[in-house]
């Protein structure tokens, strides 16, 4: 369908207003190409010109025309007053919409710890006319999304995912439809890595959604409700229903070490290429069943050293810190050193998310100081072959 001349001119003016909202602090003059209407008919051309000249008469824009035999051709449209242009177009400016949405978010969160940063981040996006994690600056929807995120922090551990959705938002499908924005809020509130997946966030909160099996190789056994034994000694590894983790019991001699591994490929390599040691796959950021298993093994074998092997980046170090908390005793980093980062890594900007760990007087602190400083480098653990931690010279 051919767009009329008046509609074509309106699109040009809207594009100019959007540019003004995206570049609110710009000192340069904002202009856009005037183009021309798709319909070449005289009536369409006249409507196009009348619409642009009307905005100029309103004091919203200035029209730049060509030179010489093109002096009657409108070539560019320059912004004069964004507020007048918005009024001429009948559009509410992005900053006004953002302010209303931010007020709605603050209203339902009530200054709760950890949520202010998400509100500020969202407001900055909305003020530029951009949705935040697919969340537009619609006050009612923003109010519901932030209320749901805040409510999830109080939902009982073990609540079914859809029941939690009803409790916090009144709809079984709300968290599925708006999970991106809800998870973005929760990442900040729970101090989780930026790259953690939504499914891992739900698991961290203890929301039940048929959790993934816990993968491991260790001298342990589990028992289901019927008393059927499930071994963790499978080769190359075993998969266990997460509901059985609480009943983990020793099944053999104490292993030489306990190791948690962040990524799937490296976990497989460790199990297949290094014969000794207990090995647990963390599924990225470890969900509650994995953290529970780590804590259980740390108690079963108090003299076995615990290692964590993951990516050398902010997420990898925060995952290692989560493992350390779950273990309740010291954890050593495996193949996660400054020297390896300098040798294999790609240069990055300072990773401020790990600055809180930098004061420690251990290998965690050393790596955190490196990653939060200038000229740090990061790399994924799959770049390295599995190594026995008791034999490696790191």
Automatic annotation (TrEMBL):
Domain of life, per lineage: Bacteria
Stretches assigned to the Wadjet protein JetD C-terminal domain: 254-356
One Pfam short name: JetD_C
Protein name per the record: Wadjet protein JetD C-terminal domain-containing protein
Organism per entry: Bradyrhizobium elkanii
Lineage: Bacteria, Pseudomonadati, Pseudomonadota, Alphaproteobacteria, Hyphomicrobiales
